[in-house]
Amino acid sequence: MPKDHGIGASTKRREDVRFLTGTGNYTDDINVYGQAYVHFLRSDVAHGTINGIDTAAAEAMPGVLHIFTGKDFEAVGGIPCGWQVTDRFGQPMKEPKHPVLAHGKVRHVGDPICAVVAETLEQARDAAEAIELDIDELPAVVNMAKALEDGATLVHDDLGDNLCYDWGFVEENKEAVDEAIKNAAHVTTLELVNNRVVPNPMEPRVAIGDFNAASGDSTLYTTSQNPHVIRLLMGAFVLGIPEHKLRVVAPDVGGGFGSKIYHYAEEALCTFAAKALKRPVKWTSTRSEAFMSDAHGRDHVTTIELALDADHKFTAVRTSTLANMGAYLSTFAPSVPTWLHGTLMAGNYTTPLVYCNVRAVFTNTVPVDAYRGAGRPEATYQLERVIDKAARELGVDPIEIRRKNFVTEFPYQTPVAVEYDSGDFHRLMDKLEAAADFGGFAARRAESEKKGMLRGLGINCFIEACGIAPSNLVGQLGARAGLYESATVRVNATGGLVVMTGSHSHGQGHETVFPQVISEMTGLEEHMVEIEHGDTANTPMGMGTYGSRSIAVGGSAMVRATEKIINKMKKIAAHLMEAAEGDIELKDGSFSVAGTDKSVAWGDVCLAAYVPHNYPLEDIEPGLEETAFYDPANFTYPAGAYACEVEVDPETGKVRIDRFTTADDFGNVMNPMIVDGQVHGGLAQGIGQALLENSTYDPETGQLLSASYMDYAMPRADDVPFFKVDHTNGTPCTHNPLGVKGCGEAGAIGSTPTVVNAVVDAVQSGGHKHVTHIDMPLTPGRVWAAMNG
Amino acid sequence: MTEVTMTVNGKSVSRPVRGNELLVEFLREQLRLTGTHVGCDTSQCGACCVHVNGELVKACTMFAAEADGAEVATIEGMANADGSLNVIQQAFQDHHGLQCGFCTPGMVMAAAALLKDNPTPTEAEIRHYLQGNICRCTGYHNIIKAIMAASGQDAGKIAAE
C-alpha cells in the first residue's frame, strides 16, 4: 500500500486550491496604494555610443513624474556579480561595470536606457516615445569566435578584449590528458553547439518598489527565487540600503527555472525610484521585454575529444569550449561554464583524466546565466553525444560501451574534484532496458518503416551535482556567498507548527512536501503544519531555491530545527511526567516514558512551554522556537538513464517523439507525485531545446530575431508524448538527514542528448550514414538538410 | 471613456472603460479578478483565457467595450456553488496538473470549453486543443491526464505509465 501521509506519500498539493480558483497572489496581482508605473526605454541597437538623451519633451507629457537615466545612478553601485572565476594563469576574470541604466554605451538590444515614471502605464509608454536619443551605432559583436579575434570591436572598451576568462580544469592534468589522447587506441572528436535558449517562466518578471517615509524603510515586491539574496545584493552592492531597512517579498512566483535567481536592474530602479519620488513604483515586464532582459541560458560552442583504449575503456576526455556571457556578467554567470560544468565531465564513468578549457566571451547579446541544470546539461550533452558517436565509430552497442565504463564503487573520487557519495548506474540501466522495452524496438522500427518513417532509439546516462553547496568549498571556487539554507520552526501554544524557510517555492510544492517531513518526524497531521516563505521580514536569511537544493539543503535545515524543537519538548515532557529525559519517546504526536504507560500529549507540552507554570524555568527557556542553518557537507549526485524513440519523416525532416522513458536515482523520495511532475517538466524543456527552441541573433546587426512567442518556439501540448518515468531505484544520499538528492533539473539535463542520439539513430537507419551529428534545435529544416546535404 | 455593462461570473457590472482597454485589463485592474493572467503580448500563451458568451476567448484579444452586454466567466467563477473545486479543478489537483499555477486558470478555462463541446476527447484531441495554452512546468503530461480524468476516462491507463 502506498503511504497516505508523511514521507513517501503522494499528498495532494494544498497550494493548488488557490491557484485553481484564481486566488493566488502573484507580484503583478499586488497594487500598492498610490503607485506610479514605470516603462523602460530600451536600446533597439545591439551596440552604440550614447551621445545624448533629451528628455525635455517627454517630461512635459501628461502624467510624467520623472525620467531616470544612467546619470541618476552615478552615485550608486552597479549590478554585482556573485562569482569570481580565476583563470588558468591565476588571474581574476575580467569584470565589467554593469550600470542600472546604460551609461556611455548601450551593449545589447534591450539594454535599459531610461526609466519613465508616470501616473499610468500608458502615459509612461507615450512619454518614452518622445525621448530623443542620440546614439551612434557601433559594429555589433555576436559570434564568439569573431569576438576573440585581434581587432574585434570591444563590448567594454576598458577591458582591452572580449575575453572574460580562459579557464582550465584540471590544469595539472593538461599534459597527461594530451599524452593519453596521443597514445589512445581510438579518439572520437565532436564539435557541437549547445544552443542559446530563454528560460521563459510563464509569469513575466515584475517589480514594485515602495518607500515608507515615516520609518525610512524600503520594500521591494519582486518575482524572485531567492528574496534574501536580492535584499543582500541590491541593498549592499547597488543602493546602499542596510538589510534592516529593506524588505524583499517574493510572493507566489510563476516559475523561475533559474531566470529569477538574479538581481536585475529593474528591481533596483523601482526601489530607488520609490524612495526618490516618495511614490510606490511598479514595473511589469511584457513577454517581449522578457526575451531581451531575462538572463538567457546555455550558448556554448564545444569541441570534445574522447580517448579509448583497445578494450573500449575511456582513458581521457579533452574539451575546448567558448561560453557566451552576453554583454554583462549576470549574478552567477561565470560559475556556469566552469565549476558547474567541468566538475561533471567524468559523468557516470571511470575516465581517469579530464581536461576542460573554457573561454568565456563578452558579446553584444543579453547576459547568459544558469538555466535549469546550469552547466550540467552542457556537460552531459557533449559527453553523451561523443560517447554515442564513439560507439558508432567502433561498431559497438551504445549501452554496452557505457556499462563497461560505469563507476561501480562508492564513494568515488572523480578526477574533476567532486566525490560521488552513492549511486548504482547498472541498476538504473537495467530498469531502463526493461521499462523502455528495448526488446520490442526492432518490431516498432519495422512498423514505422512500413509507414515510410525512420525510427530511432537514443539512450543517455547522466549524473549531476545538486544541493549546492558546502560554503567553504564554493568560497574557494570563487563564490561570493555562502550556500547554506535556513529554517525557523515555531510551535504555537495551541500545538500548530510553522516553518519559516529560506527556500522559495515557485512551483515545486514546498507548502505540501515540507509538512510531510514534519509529520513524519513528529506525528502531527500535515494540516497542523504551515510553511512560510518568500518574505525577508518573516523568514531567516536563506539562499533560496535553485540547483535542486530545496529539500536537500532547505529540508535539512528544517529537519535540524525540528530536531531542536523535539529535544526541547522532550525536556518539558520529562519534567511534566517526572521522568528522565533520556526515557522520553515521541510517537504519533505524544510523548511517552519508555516502558511505561505514562504519556503526555503534544498539545499539553506546547501549552506548558507558553504557560510555564509547571515548567523547569531554571533549566530551559519558555517558548518553542528554534532556528537551524544547514551547510551541506557535499553536493548531492542524482543520476539517471533515459531512453527516447523518435520517428523522423524522411520527406520533411520533422521529428516526432514517440516514447520517452526515464530511470532516475533521486535518493529518497518525499512525494512521488511531485517528483514525477518535476521530471515531466524538465523533459519537456529539454525536448524543447533539442527540437524547437532557439534564441537567434542576426549575426551582423545583433538584432534579437526571436523576441516573442511568434518567433521563439515553446514546446506545446502536441510536441511531447506521455512520459514513462521511474525513480524507484534510488540510493540514498549519505550525508544529509533525509537521504535526498534533488529532482528539479534531471529531466532537463538528461533529455537533450537522448533526443539527439535518437534522431541520429533514425537518420542513419535511413541510409544517411554520413550524418553523425546535427546541432540543436533539430528543426525539420536542419534534419532534412543533414539527410540531403 | 465609455460605460460598459456585462455579466461577470453571474454578477452584473457597469464601469467606464477606455477605448483601448483590453478585456483582461478590465478584469484584472477594474474588477480585481486577478486569477486571469497575462503571460505574453502576442496572444500566444493562453494564460488569460476566459469564456465570453460560453466561448473560449483570450481576454487579451478583445477590448472591454466589445464585451458590452456579454456573459463573461473567469476562473474565479468556476468552483461549485458551495465553494468546492469543480470536477475539472479537482482533477487538476488530483493529477498534479499544475505546478507554479500561472498558466492554470487559462488551462482550466480551456479544458472546460473543450469538454463542453467534446465530453470525452482523445489524448490527441486534447493536445491539439491546447495548442494555444503554454505551460512551462508540467510538460503537459499531468494536464492531459487531468482533463481525461475530468471527462471520466481512465487517465492512468491511457498515459501508459
Automatic annotation (TrEMBL), chain A:
The gene is cutL_1. The keyword Oxidoreductase applies. Residues 21-139 form the Aldehyde oxidase/xanthine dehydrogenase a/b hammerhead domain. One of its GO terms (molecular function) is iron ion binding. Pfam families: Ald_Xan_dh_C, MoCoBD_1, MoCoBD_2. Its EC number is 1.2.7.4. This is Carbon monoxide dehydrogenase large chain. It is an enzyme of class 1 (oxidoreductase). The keyword Oxidoreductase applies. Keywords: Molybdenum, Oxidoreductase. It comes from the Bacteria.
UniProtKB/TrEMBL annotation, chain B:
It is an enzyme of class 1 (oxidoreductase). One of its GO terms (molecular function) is anaerobic carbon-monoxide dehydrogenase activity. Residues 2-78 form the 2Fe-2S ferredoxin-type domain. InterPro entries: 2Fe-2S-bd, 2Fe-2S-bd_dom_sf, 2Fe-2S_ferredoxin-like_sf, 2Fe-2S_ferredoxin-type, Beta-grasp_dom_sf, Diverse_Oxidoreductases. Its EC number is 1.2.7.4. Keywords: 2Fe-2S, Iron, Iron-sulfur, Metal-binding, Oxidoreductase. Pfam families: Fer2 (PF00111), Fer2_2 (PF01799). This is Carbon monoxide dehydrogenase small chain. It comes from Roseivivax jejudonensis. The lineage of its organism: Bacteria, Pseudomonadati, Pseudomonadota, Alphaproteobacteria, Rhodobacterales. The gene is coxS.
